[in-house]
Amino acid sequence: MPDDPESWRKEASCRDIDDPDVFFSPHGSDQARAAALCADCPVRAQCLTYALDTDTQDGFWGGKTEAQRARMPRVRQVKHCKSRLHSLESDADYIYFSNGERRCKACHLATLERLKAARTA
Ligand code: SF4
Ligand SMILES: [Zn+2]
Questions:
Q1: Phi and psi for 19 in degrees, rounded to 5?
Q2: pLDDT at 3
Q3: How far apart are CA 17 and CA 35, in angstroms?
Q4: Relative to the alpha carbon of 87, which ligand is closest?
Q5: Is 0.85 surpassed by the pTM of this model?
Q6: Cβ atoms of 12 and 47 closer than 8 Å
Q7: How far is the CA of 7 from the centre of ligand 2 (A)?
Q8: What angle do CA 40, 57, 60 make, to 5 degrees?
Q9: Atom of ligand 1 nearest to the CA of 13
């Protein structure tokens, strides 16, 4: 069975608190309580990553308010081909074969160039 990507929730400090509304409250005292819970939370990093990845707007996540998260720089995850030389960002970066397979277009073209060079050498 694949790992549950949200298994970190089981270790969350806020898991069983009786007043989860503090994470969504506009009041300073509630926000201070939420921030204190997050500060000691063992899965703060996972919680923050989850909120950023899912573009979750409301509430405290990973110790950050919505406004704080909005100011955080997003590191876009760029996928690379097997050679790690080329980024694969859109369909145009692939070459498609009739059997449904697709490969990195830049690697494929480089292979064709190598074969051509070997033949004419
Ligand atoms: S970081 Fe805060 S909001 Fe996130 S799981 Fe921990 S206590 Fe809950
Ligand atoms: Zn490639």
A1: -130, 65
A2: 66
A3: 14
A4: 2
A5: no
A6: yes
A7: 34
A8: 20
A9: 7
> Average pLDDT per run of 10 along the chain, which is 121 residues long?
77 94 93 94 92 86 91 75 86 92 95 93 78
> Any idea which residue has 């980024």 for tokens?
87
The DSSP code sequence of 52-114 is: HHTT--SS-BTTB-HHHHHTSPP----EE-TTSSSEE-SGGGEEE-TTS-EEEHHHHHHHHHH
**Contact criterion met (CB below 8 Å) for 81 and 107:** yes
Q: Which of 100, 95, 98 is nearest to 112 (CA)?
A: 95
Q: Which residues are annotated as a binding site?
A: 14, 38, 41, 47
pLDDT at 121: 78
Where are the chain's structural domains?
Answer: 7-70, 79-120
Whether 94 and 101 have beta carbons less than 8 Å apart is answered as: no
